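The passage that follows is intended for readers who have already worked through the single-chain material. We present the inputs for a multi-component assembly, then the predicted structure in tokenized form, and finally a short commentary. You are encouraged to pause after the input and sketch how you expect the pieces to fit together before reading on.
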Amino acid sequence: MKINTRPARHRALRAVAARAAGAVAVLWGAATLAFFALALIPGDPVTIMLGPFTTAPQSIRDQIAADNGLDKPLFERYLAYLGRLAQGDMGESYQLQKSVAAVIGEALGPTVELALAAVVIAIVLAIVSAVLTAGREGRLRGFVTSWELVAVSLPPHWLGILLLTAFSFQLPIFPVVGVGGPSALVLPALTLALPIIGVLAQVLREGLEAALAQPFAVTARARGLSRRQVRVRHALRHAAVPLATLSGWLAGTLLGGAVIVEAVFGRPGLGALALQSATNKDMPVLIGIVLVSALTFVVISALIDAFQLLVDPRVRT
Amino acid sequence: MSPLLTVEGLTVAFPGVQAVRGASFTLDRGECLAIVGESGSGKSVTARSLVGLAGDRASVKATTLDFDGTDLTGLDERGWRRIRGGRIGLVLQDALVSLDPLRTVGAEITEALRVHRDVPRAAVHDEVVELLTRVGVPEPEVRAGQYPHQLSGGLRQRALIASALAGRPELLIADEPTTALDVTVQARILELLDRLKAEGTALLLISHDLAVVSRLADRVAVMYGGLLVEEGPTREVLDGPRHPYTRALAAAVPSAAARGTRLAPVRHSGPPAGPDGCPFAERCAHADDVCRDTPPPPAPLRCHHPESGPVARAVFIGPEGVFIGPGGRALDEPGAVPPARGAYGTTPGAPDPRAVGHGVSLSGIGDTLLTVTDVTKRYGGREVVRGVSLRVDRGEALGIVGESGSGKTTVARIVLGLAKPDSGSVTFAGEPWSALPERRRRPLRRRIQTIVQDPLGSFDPRHDTGTLLGEALAFAGVPRRERRARALELLERVELPASVAGRRPAELSGGQRQRIAIARALAPEPELLVCDEPVSALDASVQAQILDLLTELRSALALSLLFISHDLGVIHHISDRVAVMKDGEVVETGEATSLLAAPSHPYSRELFAAIPALTRADA
Amino acid sequence: MKRLPVLRPRALPRPSVALAWTVLVLLVLAAAFPGLFTGKSPIEIDAATALRGPGPGHWFGTDQLGRDQFARVVHGARPSLLVGLGSIAFAVVAGALYGLASALLGRTADRVLMGINDIVLALPQLLLALLALAILGSGQLNVMVAIALAFLPGYARLVRAEALVVRNSGYVETAVTLGQGPFTRAFRHVLPNALGPLLVLASTGFGMSLISVSALSFLGFGARPPTPEWGVMLSEGRGLLQTAWWLGVFPGAAITLTVVAVTVAGRAAQARFTRRTAG
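Having made your guess, compare it with the prediction:
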């Protein structure tokens, strides 16, 4: 069973192509979903744009409708929408008098900062907790596993409130409002990271324990390796493999969590923007955020797939 | 000179389980000792205790555990790590999971090298290649860069052995080193181990397979219930086993000589033994209160009532005493040629009418039941079955033998109507079968039933045995009020107590599950039973019981069998005719005894030669 | 090679499982008969007792309107549990039907249904819920529907996968050889065996839906003040944390306790279920 490099390269190319097609499909699907959700919205978009207390006459309303292409048939509007989208034009916000792209662009930075900080905290702490407790029994493990259970059961908005109460009001260590320097990022990032740590550590530990129970772990120890060496050199890589199944969940949790964390800490960002546009029925913005999150999902799963290719030779061939 | 390894009074206990009870043995350089036993006998735990890897929950004690002057009982973790790999190597079964699947074979061997030997970085690669060459891996440079899943089973096992040899251990422990392998591959691995032994490595072989052991081992120790019940030179133990358990184990091996005889003694169950008593007492016909309450006599033969003389075939231990069945000869009596089919009923000296034979049910039957004509099946562009033609007569057992990937299972699925042949046809009882649309085949399906290797997967996990049998009976058209009685009848037929009806198969043992699968297959009163490796996952003694049961049922119910196995002994034991498959084709078909005695196709010859048999080397 | 003997976990309920069930029973009682636990009104305003800390008389303190927080937490059990339960039930039933349809209606249907499903699955649940709420408008019933819609694709995928596993299993194949037709197989084997793991997972999903319900209430979409709902209470207390920490603590603790109890009980059920099927 000799490996032939050429077919392998073909396979790799085909995998990349399939991946790209999948990404386009997800984006197109999300766009379509968003468009029809918008079409389904009860009530007249013009009314929403003008706000609830408008007294604008019918002629102005017609003018607004025509400006926004709302007088055309649905399918025509769908095609026009896709066409604009392909050029990166996501339309105008109903309320903010700016293009959706600009609104989202402003909000993106703080959220990316928050999400990255949370991911780094989560991965580091999850690995530490999993490696320390996998395959062991005793008090430490009992404590860590029950803590993880609590971490995934904590409502993030409550967690944020607790942290604020403890570290901003009772002990004024961190600022109350989550904007500004790095110290303002600590509590929000922790709030976002904690539930992720809980899940990640559980999955990692299960993976580690499954790997340590495999015959190759016995073989490695029979070779004279210490427990720690088996854990670090062999088992950890195995534990990383099932993480791929978490990519969708991770993307969703980060963005969904951002909505709550930004609300609790009064941070600007995509989450705050999503909340604001949902509350005000500013559909173009909300749909823009849906598209951005679909893109995020595509990017995160591509990253995790690449990581898996690196770790697991069985996927490569 | 003192032996390389001396073990005395080795005891391993897990919470609630006494896994090893006072094992003692020695092993010299260049010598091979085999520990033989069934699953749960404690053989693997014994092996792992020798490298301090019996597990965290294990409590290991021994009077002496001496390895070349080093006292292993007093070792701490650091000390153990010097021993492991450096002085004692361990090889496990199935290298696909025993080598790290995420690392190259070369990386695994390098790791082993680095731990114990100070090999300069530049020399590591050469050393790896040399090790791979030594264990007979072709193109070692290429293989070193490959991952376990890219290698064939045999190469993987060799690579695993190479990684165990990297630290230059003086003792190699091989725990079922060939169990997952095809016979031809197994033969080559055994040759490799034999060569290592000749080069001076001491070998501790752990196996459930007496035949494998007889090829390699100088001495054999038989383990049952944590106790080494009998130990001695291989030929002595296998030719003249004296402990009742060893005798039962030897008799259970299906082979040419055992055709038409019982493999398992009639099941005996006495009161269980006390904690110190003989673990086999419960199953032993000779057991008395002394066996149950006092420790067995000291090694090498730990039995109060040893037997002697050749092992009789078809030993039939009944309440009236011991009968010697028609096979009435030692396993390996020189020149023992099995009698022709159908001759058993009239063999002089076969007084026991209960001894079951193939001939019994066969009189007056001969018309064809199943015909497979030129069947071809492709999966994903690959022909897994190519132009296969087979015939099964009424009341006949056709055995299909072949290695993994030979297409045997696909043939079974086509016969069962679970897969459609791409070309060719299957007819059943003279009528079209594979050509029928499913709607018309459905009412006829009860006539062909199946039992498979893993019965557990074939039972709906939500149902107990009674429900499962009731369901099968319902589809056989048995009225509701009669089902319970019929289900109990079926359980009796497969020698299970009625109480099993209320339990789910997951709660039962492997042998019991296979009996339930047989009972369910019998429920619709089929004419043909397709058996796909039905005994491969079972321990020797359980396998013997299931084979006996199938033979008996055949006689009683005039069943035809299509019996698929990779195990030639099993095939020979059960079949009237045999088909040999390789790469999707039937290379040879013929009457069982003559084909197995004198195969004509080169592949059959290679296959049969590769199979370790219990016969004496010079016979 | 054989496995080393491993001791099975004790069949007796561990104390944590028993404790979880006790909490759940108390919660159900509080939802059904809040009067059993408190005689005070959850909405009665009493300026005289505003912003009292926890202590005798007001175990969980009072808010700026003098409402007894203990009474509000007890009365909050009903709306919180009902909306959570409703959304998870909706998600499971609709998801199961969708998944089964995808698994059993043939390859084309499977491609289309799962294609749509996977796209929705790629979006964050909370964002989906927000989208649904933007379309439907707020309110407890709409929160329930929005959460159900957000959870549905996950369950649909799970049921489809389970149904495919069962459909290709040894026992369904054996049913074929016994002569069972496709409908008998679907209803006797595929459906019940695919539903088992789903129901068990739904029990842990219930915990997640409780968190989502309270989050959406917190964000202002669900129940409206002065309804005593845990998420609403947190949102009301959010502005007063500096002076009245207890307003932020007890409603959240109630949610967390509920979710932990549901998860522990659900996992115990899951462990029992796997043991049962694995033997």
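Commentary: The interface with chain B takes residues 1-2, 4-5, 7, 169-171, 173-174, 176-181, 188-189, 192-193, 196, 276-279 of chain C (CB under 8 Å). Residues 230 and 251 of chain C are 5 Å apart (CA to CA). How closely did your sketch match?
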